[in-house]
Amino acid sequence: xxxxxxxxxxxxxxxxxxxxxxxxxxxxxxxxxxxxxxxxxxxxxxxxxxxxxxxxxxxxxxxxxxxxxxxxxxxxxxxxxxxxxxxxxxxxxxxxxxxxxxxxxxxxxxxxxxxxxxxxxxxxxxxxxxxxxxxxxxxxxxxxxxxxxxxxxxxxxxxxxxxxxxxxxxxxxxxxxxxxxxxxxxxxxxxxxxxxxxxxxxxxxxxxxxxxxxxxxxxxxxxxxxxxxxxxxxxxxxxxxxxxxxxxxxxxxxxxxxx
Length: 259
Prior knowledge:
Elements: E1 15-19, H1 24-35, E2 39-44, H2 47-58, E3 64-68, H3 74-88, E4 93-96, H4 112-140, E5 143-148, H5 162-182, E6 187-194, H6 203-206, H7 209-215, H8 231-238, E7 249-252
Parallel strand pairs: 1-2, 1-4, 2-3, 4-5, 5-6, 6-7
Helix pairs in contact: 1-2, 1-8, 3-4, 4-5
């Protein structure tokens, strides 16, 4: 028998950033990354959630840090990235997951302030996070950038969701352009497009009986997704197994868009 080969999904020796990693999808991904052996830095604005996530993730045995960071603030993003590199010595993958859904409003009544507030986090925040990570990865010789978007950006929208739909659609263009610009530096850039995932942010929408009656039958497993359902794709995109994948959108939606 030949010698056993290392798994391409093994993340030991790699360091990963997950913005918004203290809850919801971000925490589900962070937990899978830590379990696969990665050192993980979670960025979030809630000190209490950061502390709880830090305690839970540390149980995986990996090195974990939690930093307070508003991703819409360029200065805070740079500081958080510098602190992460100081703690781990490197960053191999960066998941720009932090986002907000905003308040549902009729298009004609939507205040400009609400539009700009959502774009500041959902689009500007990803740009600032990617830019800080890219500068480090160019010097380091490569890495993986991942934007967590939504099927609402390309496949499915709901009523009164113009800012959120626009922000997620914008991420598609950002990912493709960044993938093209950064390929020569060995940096791959991809997007994850979740479907309907049970989190605090989606609780109000998914709990509506009319919405559930219309949407659940279209899910092949007849259930909403959970944050842990995003763990596998996170490990894949952080690992060497995804070294040939860039500029793409990976849909994780329980089959909703094909049903």
